[in-house]
Design brief:
The structure holds two protein chains of two kinds.
Chain A: E1 4-7, E2 10-13, E3 19-25, E4 31-37, E5 43-51, E6 54-57, E7 64-66, E8 76-78, E9 87-94, E10 105-106, E11 110-114
Chain B: E1 3-5, E2 10-14, E3 19-21, E4 24-26, E5 32-39, E6 46-52, E7 59-61, E8 64-69, E9 74-79, E10 88-96, E11 102-104, E12 108-113
Parallel strand pairs in B: 2-12
Antiparallel strand pairs in B: 1-4, 3-9, 5-6, 5-10, 7-8, 8-9, 10-11, 10-12
The chains are: A mainly beta, B mainly beta.
Chain lengths: 115, 114
């Protein structure tokens, strides 16, 4: 079955530690995205990538880093520079191109808690 | 600039009532796309519908219907005869023609009580 997988589902981190959240898709989608969602809030864009080896900052990129070495994978690293990283993180992907229906498909999310 | 506003933060209804979720958007583009997503308590966003700016036809899918009006920049979502399983957070979103970024509203939490 095609889809987006995120791991782990729950992640606990001590202050000062970097952690990496995994996002993998087998939908052959070109673009991938990372969002952060705080309780009772909407989605805020962290980073996005439209092609391999290229990515752009979103609205809240400070304290985060990404890589896009493979089309299928877009891992997100939450660094110790992120002041308040406790949140729900969602990965999404979409096809790119004119005439193509480009809705974003989402993974199940990773809930990160800093202890 | 692109912006999506969902003014209703939370709505509570009793099962079988009809409910409309409002979405108002801002864009200067002539070509754009609008979306609705459902986020159940599990957290994963589920795609419900897309609409492009050239298609103002309303759409009905079972108990769900969508009313797109360019004149008022609105893309409202109605659930007829609501059910407890409809309880979720619903997000409206806008994307530009290049699909680089999606702009999400802040979401409306719908509580359907038995």
């Amino acid at each position: 079955d095609g889809g987006i997988t995120q791991s782990p589902k729950y992640l606990f981190r001590k202050e000062g530690q970097n952690v990496t959240l995994s996002c993998e898709q087998n939908l052959n989608h070109d673009a991938m995205y990372w969002y952060r969602q705080d309780p009772g809030q909407g989605l805020r864009l962290i980073y996005y990538s439209q092609i391999v080896n290229d990515f752009q900052k979103g609205d809240i990129a400070e304290g985060y880093s990404v890589s896009r070495e493979k089309k299928e994978s877009f891992p997100l690293t939450v660094t110790s520079a992120q002041k308040n990283p406790t949140a729900f993180y969602l990965c999404a992907s979409t096809k790119v191109g004119r005439g193509v229906y480009n809705e974003q498909f989402f993974g199940p999310g990773t809930r990160l808690t800093v202890l | 600039a692109q912006k999506v506003t969902q003014a209703q933060t939370e709505i509570s209804v009793v099962e079988k009532e009809d409910v409309t979720l409002d979405c108002v958007y801002e864009t200067r583009d002539t070509t754009y796309y609008l979306f609705w997503y459902k986020q159940p308590p599990s957290g994963e966003l589920v795609f419900l519908i897309r609409r492009n700016s050239f298609d103002e036809q309303n759409e009905i899918s079972g108990r769900y219907s969508w009313n797109f009006q360019k004149s008022t920049s609105s893309f409202n979502f109605t659930i007829t005869a609501s059910q407890v399983v409809d309880s979720a957070v619903y997000f409206c979103a806008l994307s530009r023609n290049n699909f680089n970024k999606f702009y999400f509203g802040s979401g409306t939490k719908l509580n359907v009580k038995p």
